[in-house]
Amino acid sequence: MIEATVADIHAALINEHVTIREVVKQYLERIDAYNEELNAILTVNPNALDRADELDAKLAAGEFVGPLHGIPTILKDNQNTADMPTTGGAVTLEDSMAPDDAFVVEQMRTVGAIIIAKANLHELAGGGTTVSSLGGQTRNPYALDRTPGGSSGGTGAALATNMAPIGFGTDTVNSIRSPASACNLVGLRPSMGLVSREGTIPVALTQDMVGPITQSVADAARILDVIAGYDPEDPSTAQGAEYIPESYTDYLNPDGLKDTRIGVLRSVFASGPESEPVVEVAEEAVVDLETLGATTIEIDAEVDVDALIDSFHVGSYEQQAQFNDYLDSLGDGAPIETLEAFVEAGEYDPSLESGLEAALEIESPTDEPEYFERLYRRNRFIEELYDSMAAGAVDALFFPHQKQLVAEIGDDQLGRNGFLSSGTGFSSITVPGGFSKEGVPVGVEFLCRPFDEPTLFEVAYAYEQGTRHRCPPEGFGPVE
């Protein structure tokens, strides 16, 4: 099962080379063999093999329940599951049980996906290095002295080492695409309003998004086919319902970069010795884009992503009220009732302290004039981003996801560019761009206008197929 795609697994099942139980068992064996070294997985689903047997029986009877029939899947442990705790990586929430699955999880199970495990994360998705009071520090399998990015780094480390073929993250600032970049994977942040966030522990719903982390662009498209759609429990999804094509896989075109115009957002490439390894990879990627048929356009806009975060990130404004609403939705399954009680328990990782203190100062964002100022500045920047893309007549923007290599354990992750998407609601995807000389993965990002995922998949798939940078880390081969 090393580097097996959804199509590979289905071909093996259909040709009777393997059963679903055998597939699931192989991935569980990999978790058992490698998780102690990586700290990627928090909970293994005790019902996974039973579900595999049910799906094997359906397959033997000629019933294929959906496009992910029998495919093992790892969730980030801030997505509700009725059959396993949803902890957010927090000791305080270790026994927290949701009454039902999150909307996205239900959609995945309906089409045959098997949730085999839930992954570690930066506690409450509150940082970018994937450390939690419940799971400890997750390690990057390509460089064990470095973090796997975050906050969805458990999913990233697990998929990089083939503990499952597909998985999920959530993203408030960078948190799907950061571990994809750091772990040589594909990370898709869908347009705001395309995928439901219902049943996910929130940070700030103005920015929160759920999306796939995979080893290939094709599998990300397959997952988006399943999870995109209207959910009345998340009214934002009414915006995207009319833009969903018959299948996103129709846009997996190996020649998808030909005759496209790709805007190179040079102002976020950064400079200095700490950024040199990333810039080298990104500059090579620009040459590859041109070789693959794209016209690259230098975008003149001066963008300071850190300044944008300071200007209109709303996490501390929304977190307390929305987290309290989430706890209320759990009913009797909630071990605490409020964010204040979570803080008073004092069991969280120290990296959360300043963020939690800021959130506790704001009971309701609508009582804060600065909150509305931030939303206003956000809308102004969205207009500027549209203008920059229109002025260059570009189909997508291109830049390195991070200005620097992923942080060493114990350091903060600096210089991430993912807020260009999370702060605006534009669609984006991070794909493997290559490696530093030390062998640390570097991800590159494409950003498209809202609901233009078809273009996003075209250019990302063509780049992926034309460069083939994805490869598994050394030291995590077949389990004997």
TrEMBL record:
<dbReference type="InterPro" id="IPR036928">
    <property type="entry name" value="AS_sf"/>
</dbReference>
<dbReference type="Pfam" id="PF01425">
    <property type="entry name" value="Amidase"/>
</dbReference>
<protein>
    <submittedName>
        <fullName>Amidase</fullName>
    </submittedName>
</protein>
<feature type="domain" description="Amidase">
    <location>
        <begin position="22"/>
        <end position="456"/>
    </location>
</feature>
<dbReference type="InterPro" id="IPR023631">
    <property type="entry name" value="Amidase_dom"/>
</dbReference>
